[in-house]
Amino acid sequence: MYALVESGSITKIFSNPKGFMLNNNQYSADIFTKWTTAEKNAIGIYEVTTDSTNFKDEKWYINTNESYAYSSGTVTRSWGTATAKAHADSLWTAQDDTNGLIPDDKDVGDVKVEGLKTVLIRTLKQQVAGILADTDWYITRNAEKTTAIPSAISTHRDAVRTKQASMETAITNATDTPALETLYTYTEQDDGTVTRPLGELPTLES
Question: What is the pLDDT of residue 171?
Answer without folding.
Answer: 98
